Amino acid sequence: MAIGIDKLSFYTSEYVLDLVELAQRRGVDPNKYTIGIGQDKQSVIPNYEDVVTMGANAAAKIIDNDDRQQIDLIIFATESGIDNSKSSALYVQKLLNLSEFSRTIEIKQACYAGTFGLMQARDYVANHSGKRVLVIASDIARYGLNTPGEVTQGGGAVAMIVSESPRIATINSDSVYMSRDVADFWRPIDRTEAIVDGHLSTDIYKEMFLTLWQRYKEQSGRTIADFAGFSFHLPYTKMGKKAFDQIIDEADEIPQGRLLKNLKASQKFSRQVGNLYTGSVYLSLLSLLSYAQDLVAGEQLAIFSYGSGAEAELYSITLQENFFKYVPANETKKELADRKKVSVDQYEQIFNSQLLDSHENVSSDHPDADHFQFLGWQNGERRYK
Ligand code: HMG
Questions:
Q1: Atom of ligand 1 nearest to the CA of 280
Q2: Mean pLDDT, to the nearest integer, of 274-294?
Q3: Per-residue model confidence (pLDDT) at position 303
Q4: Alpha carbon distance 23, 27 (integer Å)
């Protein structure tokens, strides 16, 4: 039985920062950000959003009554968790009115965890015929004001329903993966911003991609000619290109042109949003499916997932008949275009107004919106609506 991604959705906050304006404020040539890093904008996450609200807001777009009856497991992947004990999946289960007769769990390994969640979901469905799994990958990328990582911030959530007979893509059983203890990026439990060795992280990312690509070819017998496109984890869009440049000459001229065009398609949403850690590689997939003009059912896409620390996985998916009908391309484009622009001053004020102290009974600065929101702390408890 074919198993894979039946539905896919994305949510990010309603605020956006123009990175040309950020570059001007930081005294940097804007071309460094828009060309050197490959980012145009970044989502700014206000204090009434967190990984729970963004995850629930993403999932709310795709859950229907059939899903409510058949979702047996909710996997929440994040490295921006809001509690050291309680899983974010429990909050989502309640907000979305999902059945209490389901399993709920939160998982972590930097940006890689969303992919682990997806693989667990596929294996779970294989062993529980007729059941569906909700996988959420939700994060806020925070490096700090005026740091080298600032231009690579962002945030948002991707939600996916994994089921039998998926309408978008099957997940093929051809993964290759690797893990190694590396100090390229981490966040001690008492800190709100990551510690990062940016250049080391870039090198490890490239090295792991190349190593896994060689291993994938050996184990599967496939070559670059078997793929219509690649989706990469995109902490910034240039990162995917740096990795891909290592292998692109393996393709003949005409397919090479197509692969590079589709790489650009896979970067478009991330250019506007920034890093969203666990969800980033799946935003890249959504972007590829939304912008590539020439993909057809039966074709295969390669997915490269990387999480600092470090762990990586490379695998393929196969596009299903009429897959494009189930991809929220126009909706996502519209939501990104409709975001409200904030000035650098407003962004800095929002950055510094996060409600991090559970000892204070406070309310968040939330507008009266339709989306799920974090309302603030009451006696150490997070409150949502
Ligand atoms: P930096 O050191 O300020 O930038 O930080 P740089 O000096 O390396 O310049 C970046 C690029 O801009 C270079 O191009 C420059 O030449 C170019 P490259 O050599 O790389 O091709 N440049 C210009 N281009 C045009 N016009 C100009 C100009 N000036 C310079 N005027 C860095 C960059 C990415 C290191 C920093 O932003 C950072 O530390 N970011 C956070 C870490 C990160 O994103 N790492 C990526 C791999 S690790 C990963 O993906 C995992 C992660 O998502 C976390 C997780 O797993 O949880 C991060």
A1: 53
A2: 97
A3: 98
A4: 6
Query: What single DSSP character describes residue 356?
Result: -
Pick the catalytic residue: 49, 233, 311, 313?
A: 233
Phi, psi at residue 250, to the nearest 5°? -70, -15
Phi-psi region of 331 (alpha: psi -120 to 50; beta: other; left: phi over 0): alpha
State whether 185 and 312 are in the same domain: yes
Angle at CA of residue 58, ends 187 and 241, nearest 5°:
60
CB 287 within 8 A of CB 264: no
What is this structure's pTM? Answer: 0.98
Residues 56, 202 within the same domain: no
Q: Give the domain CATH number at 67.
A: 3.40.47.10
Shared domain check, 230 and 191:
yes
Residue 367 pLDDT: 74
- Lookup: tokens for 116: 């682990």
* Residue 86 vs residues 5, 105, 112, 311, 376: alpha-carbon distances, Å: 27, 9, 21, 24, 17
Residue 368 has pLDDT above 80, yes or no: no
- The parent domain of residue 356 ranges over 3-169+328-384
More confident residue, 366 or 237: 237
Q: Which two tokens stand for residue 215?
A: 């291993």
Is 304 within 8 Å of 232 (Cβ atoms)?
yes
Show the ligand 1 pocket: residues with CB < 6 angstroms.
29, 31-32, 35-37, 79, 110-111, 148-149, 151-152, 185, 196, 198-199, 201-202, 205, 233, 235-236, 239, 275, 277, 306-308
Cα 305 from Cα 371, distance rounded (Å): 29
Mutate to test the pocket of ligand 1, among 80, 304, 308 (most ligand atoms within 8 A of CB): 308
